[in-house]
Amino acid sequence: MKNTHVNRRQVLQATAAISATAALPLHAEDTPATSLKGRLYKTLKLGMVSLKGGTLTDKFKLAKAAGFGAIEIGCPGANIADVKKATADSGLPVDGSVGNTHWQVRHTHEEAAVRAKALDHLKQSLIETEAVGGKTCLLVVGHGNDGPEEEIWKRSVDNISLALPLAGELGVSIVVENVWNQFCYDHGGDHTQTADKFVKYIDDFNSPLVGMQFDIGNHWKYGSMGDWIRQLNKRIIKLDVKGFSRAEDKFKQIGAGDLDFADVNDALAEINFHGWCAAEVGGGGPDRLKQISDNMDRVFNLV
To answer: How far apart are CA 15 and CA 171, in angstroms?
Structure first.
């Protein structure tokens, strides 16, 4: 199997390049019929907000002015005092966090010392997230190259489960993102795959504190995102979104490409989803952030 590791920074860089060369608005006729207004709320990654010389508060204000209702910070290592000040001064809450070490320090790693460090990072992220008012910690659980699937499956479930008492005490959920990490799907396979393994993986935790931050764009290459949403159902706590083109085999801006957002919206309504959806594309300044917000409005029929 090809060793492909596409991390968050690479995705943001790729979609930033796309937005610079193909930042075309979606047309009204492309708007799905099913509206998610009152169900789906817009957030974004802090790293998407570009403001030269601006303070953290300025960045929060910029995201709010663009139409976002919250923001996700990186953990562990967040400056709690600065984040609290930015939230108070801007009126923009933190809805959750994104792990910033999980690609390198993995819960699937064969070395117990590395897994122990991954657990420490997760626990610290939970603490920091709760301290600033967030309710979710996004986690990439590891990588398929760390060993046979059965082994890394058990390693990661056992290791992450050790953080559940703290997650329960703090009231913060651990949300697993579906990424290109060669785990729970066939990376060399076609677009007829299902979410069966993700369903079984989340269910193995047997806890309401563990669910999915389901990325709508990441696995369109491998299956029907509407059907995956229907399969995952209440296991989905939160969403990420980006565009993808099967025809071009690359990530796109939100609404570009051939991802079936009409079916996605129908599926989210069918499972009665209510919650945050985080943009995960190349960011920028005021105009770019407004474009991202508007594209989310359009694909999810929010206005």
So the answer is: 33
In the structure encoding, which two tokens stand for residue 243, read together?
Answer: 């565009």
Per-residue pLDDT tens digits for 258-287: 999 999 999 999 999 999 999 999 999 999
Q: Which domain holds residue 258?
A: 34-299
Classify the C-alpha dihedral 181-182-184-186 as positive or negative.
positive
Q: What is the CATH number of the domain that holds 282?
A: 3.20.20.150
3 domain-assigned? no
Check: CB of residue 246 under 8 Å from CB of residue 258: yes
The reply to whether the predicted model has a pTM over 0.70 is: yes
Burial 74-92 (b: 16+ CB within 10 A, else e): bbbebeeeebeebbeebeb
